[in-house]
What we know:
By secondary structure, this protein is of the alpha/beta class. It has ten helices and seven strands.
Amino acid sequence: MIKIIRLFNIDIQIGYSLLPIFALAIYFNYLSRFLIVILVIIIHELAHCMVSIFFSVKVENIELFFFGGVIKSEKTFVVNPQKEILISIAGPVSNLLMFLVAYVINCYIYTHELIYFFITLNLSIGIFNMIPILPLDGGRILRALINIVYNRNKATYVAVVIGKVLCLAFLVIGIFIMVESYVGFIIIIFSIFLHTNCHNEKKMAPYTHMRDIIMKQINYDNLTIRNIREYECATVVSVLKKITTGNYCIISVFSKRGRYLGELTEKQILEAIINHDSMLTLGELIKMNNTLRTGGKK
């Protein structure tokens, strides 16, 4: 990566994959359009950064590459679904604002082909990023909406399934369009790229979910409490899959006959998995905790 500028204490870096595009832009006299594309992508990513910083998420840098841009942020934060929606939608909103400003200028103040290109580019990037396919902004918004109800792991799985179906649809559309236009070939390339990244999100989901739960134990003061009801025969690993990142979960444990046995916290579930066995049942964990409280006395 090549650092090109630093804005708002954020390093903006450009990938080596863009260098051939830069050379071709100069050769075919498209340098002005290439620079406009880079500018729009930087503003789009900075919009994400500003909202992230507002929510106390430290942003390390912005990386620009052939298919767009990506933010590198600290690995030790947990963002609840509502905040993730606002962070994700900030980029497309910035494109919408730039589109409106440029449209007014083009209609009432000054007309130029580069302004028209700027209008078309912002409209295209804004709409494209709102497609509900991970890792696009629309995909992240979709996952966050599902994450309000289910844990991040399951939310990612559902979002990936929806994304892969859409990728397949775009692939078919691209094949049909390719017969008459090169645009079809571009759609095919992007559908394959998005499908690959969507699959990678699915593979990383269990690890990301575990990381988020562990990091949530550091600071959960501002999280709302969510109660999960489970029977004593449920295992700690099965309960872990139901824990959401946007809340702090308390597990109420009941016997098979419906008698209340006690409650467990997220921390106790994690400690049981780490120190004992992931197949330990909640009933066994309740008994162990009761034994510790009474000092082994019956």
